[in-house]
Specification:
mainly alpha, three-stranded antiparallel sheet, 21 strands, binds 1-deoxymannojirimycin
Length: 637
């Protein structure tokens, strides 16, 4: 034995001296630690691992360094310095659903219009082991009824004649947008099928690291756009890909926000538009994978989540002091409420209501919501406020939560108008040249910059105008129009007639980018989104004209031989393309353009709200969709 050969070893007693026993014990404990540690490297399926490592939860210590804005567009792998949290306990078992043949537009429309061949499209009862789910599901019917939902719509989703207008010029423009969609799609299909985005110059696919190993972002983002445009062959290809190739068993680190707005939003819309059970099954499966992100001391989710069985989550390495981002954790509400609707599981609604409750309670500087919040302490981490990147869609989801609840979610309403008042008092500015813009706020100091992302706010303020205090309604509509006008100016003041990523109102310039790094355009939708809403709200023909200007500019500067690409400098006519056809171009930019040139009853605002990726979600009418929606809850406890 090895110990006998060590100096000082005798054969007395148990054969070992005290020091030898100590060395032996040390060796033994090292061995045990090694064996236990090795368990972590075993595949999740190994029984031993499940026995020893189930239900672990560790407390977070996150330290991050601040960076800004569109980090989410060009993500780096997050630093593993954040929280580890155990995967949620609930597990879902779904009966396998039979594969259905491809559908034609007419077939689906027949179902939506209440045609005779209506099947009862209901999902087999979801079995979940979560205690919260058990408690809540007993109060509600077991299944979601698609037929009941259909009966609640005030208008057929595609309107009369697919939303075709009576004006020939508008129809030609609409057809042009449809052709652009087909061109973008065909090239994606040819060169990048199954990847996340198309690289149109190099004619290959891009995967990136935003979706944690999930693939086909352009497919999921396109489902509803293809469907409403009547591109049914393309839609059926997309559907078949979801059926055969959308693999949710990925094990990578994903942005919770991006997966939610693109994948969850895209699948939800596809389901509500078509009634195909496949989408419901997939979206509920995906929703479950996102739940562990909420396992933090406050319930505020972290930005990055491992979609595998570990369910570990992190804060972005660039986010101040391990904080979570307002626009990320504040942009879950619409999708999560619908996940509860479809799964009959209250847990999703509980998660987002908890976020709402915290935000409602916490003290806000000047009534404003800063962009960084600690998921550990529940306190703001720094006082940077922006209606553009990092803040934007949080505000959007407040008013849309109210509208989606059929105007019964009073807390969302109160928070939205309160926030808008603070924004007006602190951020809204008028330039010497008379342009209204949203500045950014850094601890009381104004940065006279407006991001392209902030241009969605014209549409947002517009759709909220009618529910403000009676004496303020016209004012809100005017404000919405002024902001949309300013964003249009940022387009017309460039050589390409496309707008820069950010424009400023200082150093003598107005609505123009003064920094080289702000001059790019990556096929973003926000300005066109505001044109679409303002058209629907006012029917002022200028919005359709502005949309047409954008179509022409996209065709001239962004269309390349094999798709559409962003450009690096909107101020020069010698195009330098960025070789990326973003999935939101298919989901948002082209959809909003198509809606702009269609009748208002195509995805009527009386029935639908659009999530921040332009995926339409139905308004939840009381007594119509089963009431497990947030309107039954209050945050004012
Ligand atoms: C989209 O993914 C969403 O609109 C998001 O809210 C912000 N940015 C992009 C498009 O610019």
């Amino acid at each position: 034995m090895v110990f006998r050969k060590l100096p000082g070893v005798s054969a007395s007693g148990m054969g070992l001296r005290l020091s030898q026993k100590f060395v032996f014990l040390l060796f033994l404990s090292g061995l045990v630690t090694l064996c236990f540690g090795a368990l972590f490297f075993l595949p999740d399926s190994v029984r031993l691992k499940r026995i020893f490592l189930s239900k672990t939860e560790t407390q977070p210590v996150t330290v991050g360094s601040g960076s800004e804005n569109d980090a989410r567009e060009h993500l780096k792998r997050p630093k593993e310095q954040g929280m580890t949290s155990a995967k949620g306990e609930s597990s879902t078992k779904l009966k396998s659903l039979s594969r259905k043949p491809s559908v034609s537009h007419e077939a689906t429309e027949e179902r939506l219009a209440g045609g005779k061949a209506q099947e009862d499209l209901t999902l087999p009862r979801l079995k979940t082991e979560s205690s919260s789910a058990k408690a809540s599901s007993s109060d509600h019917p077991d299944t979601f009824s698609y037929n009941k939902f259909k009966g609640c719509l005030l208008k057929p989703p595609l309107g009369r004649d697919g939303g075709k207008t009576s004006d020939p010029t508008t129809n030609e423009r609409r057809e042009k947008v449809k052709e652009m969609m087909k061109f973008a799609w065909d090239n994606y299909k040819r060169y990048a099928w199954g990847k996340n985005e198309l690289r149109p110059l190099t004619r290959n696919g891009h995967i990136g690291n935003m979706f944690g190993g999930l693939r086909g972002a352009s497919i999921i983002d396109s489902l509803d756009t293809l469907y409403i445009m009547g591109l049914m062959e393309e839609y059926n290809d997309a559907k078949e890909w979801v059926q055969t190739s959308l693999d949710l068993n990925s094990n990578g680190e994903a942005s919770l926000f991006e997966v939610n707005i693109r994948y969850v939003g895209g699948l939800l819309s596809a389901y509500y538009l078509t009634g195909e059970e496949l989408y419901k099954k997939k979206v509920v499966e995906l929703g479950e994978k996102l739940l562990p992100a909420f396992n933090t001391p406050t319930g505020i989710p972290r930005g990055v989540i491992n979609l595998g069985s570990s369910g570990t989550s992190w804060s972005w390495g660039w986010a101040s002091a391990g904080s979570s981002i307002l626009a990320e954790f504040g942009t879950l509400h619409l999708e999560f409420v619908h996940l509860s609707e479809l799964s009959r599981n209250q847990i999703y609604t509980e998660k987002v209501m908890n976020i709402r409750k915290l935000l409602n309670k916490i003290e806000k500087p000047h009534g404003l919501y800063p962009n960084f919040l600690s998921p550990v302490s529940g306190n703001w981490v720094q006082h940077h406020v922006s209606i553009g990147g990092l803040g934007d869609s949080f505000y959007e989801y407040l008013i849309k939560s109210y509208l989606m609840s059929d105007k019964s979610d009073d807390d969302a309403k109160k928070m939205y108008y309160g926030a808008l008042e603070a924004i007006e008092a602190n951020l809204v500015q008028k330039s010497p040249g008379g342009l209204t813009y949203m500045a950014e706020w850094r601890g009381g100091i104004l940065d006279h910059k407006m991001g392209h992302l902030a241009c969605f706010s014209g549409g947002m303020i517009g759709i909220g105008a009618d529910d403000g205090e009676p004496e303020k309604r016209q004012h809100y509509l005017d404000l919405a129009a002024e902001i949309t006008h300013t964003c249009h100016e940022s387009y017309t003041r460039s050589a390409t007639k496309l707008g820069p990523e950010a424009f400023r109102f200082d150093s003598g310039g107005e609505a123009t980018a003064t920094r080289l790094s702000d001059r790019y355009y990556i096929l973003r939708p926000e300005v066109i989104e505001s044109y679409m809403y303002m058209w629907r709200l006012t029917h002022d023909p200028k919005y359709r004209e502005w949309g047409w200007e954008a179509v022409q500019a996209l065709e001239q500067h962004c269309r390349v031989e094999s798709g559409f690409s962003g450009i690096r400098d909107v101020y020069t006519m010698t195009a330098s393309h960025d070789n990326m056809q973003q999935s939101f171009f298919l989901s948002e930019t082209l959809k909003y353009l198509y809606l702009l040139f269609s009748d208002d009853d195509l995805l009527s605002l009386e029935d639908w709200v659009f999530n921040t990726e332009a995926h339409p979600l139905p308004i939840i009418r009381r007594g119509c969709l089963q009431d497990i929606a947030p309107q039954d809850k209050t945050v004012a406890e």
